[in-house]
Amino acid sequence: MTEPHDRLSAGSSPASTAARARRAVLALLVLVLGLAQGCGAPHADQGEDSGSRAGVGRNGRVEFAVEPIEPIGRGKNTFHVRLTWTDSRNPVKRIRLRVLAMMLGMAHGSSTHEGKEIEPGLYEVADVPFSMGGLWDVQFRALGSSLIDETAFEYEVP
After folding, report:
1. In 3D, which of 152, 61, 155, 78 has the Cα closest to residue 116?
2. pTM for the complete prediction?
């Protein structure tokens, strides 16, 4: 005879029990790694970061070249973003550039910041806040009447 505590509950199967166990182990691993890194702990293996980033957007239409005007730090940061069409290599002019900074591990984020075109294809995005040290994900979106292209870069804020 099977004892009541040895039986699976209604609706449970060995597969669903194993899946719950895997999710629990994964959640514990994420928590432990997050605590080990700490909210503001810098990565020891990284050297000085200029903050410059470049890459082609997810849709392959626009290249984003990002340069902070000062070293990245806590508080408000300003970026210059050069947008170039990948097919023609011409500057992307008169477009909306929106930027959002998020610290995914701690659920911190900022409001959306609008870029201002300061010369053809060069945009300035001012006052992007990093409220604390740690790893931040900064999303850049080039918009016409709809999304044209987007990318994201990571910044380790000291």
Report:
1. 78
2. 0.68
pLDDT averages per 10-residue partition of the chain, 158 residues: 43 52 47 40 55 96 97 95 97 96 80 95 96 93 94 94
CB atoms within 10 A of CB 155: 22
To which H or E segment does residue 53 belong? strand 53-56
| pLDDT (0 to 100) of residue 47 | 59
Supply φ then ψ for residue 31, to 5 degrees: -65, -45
Q: Give pLDDT, residue 45.
A: 46
Alpha-carbon distances, residue 105 vs 33, 40, 102, 114 (angstroms): 10, 11, 9, 24
- Distance from chain centroid for Cα 70: 20
Pairing type for strands 116-119 and 122-130 reads: antiparallel
Cα–Cα dist 95/116, whole Å:
9
In sequence order, the 6+-apart residues with CB closer than 8 A to the CB of 86 are: 56, 60, 61, 62, 63
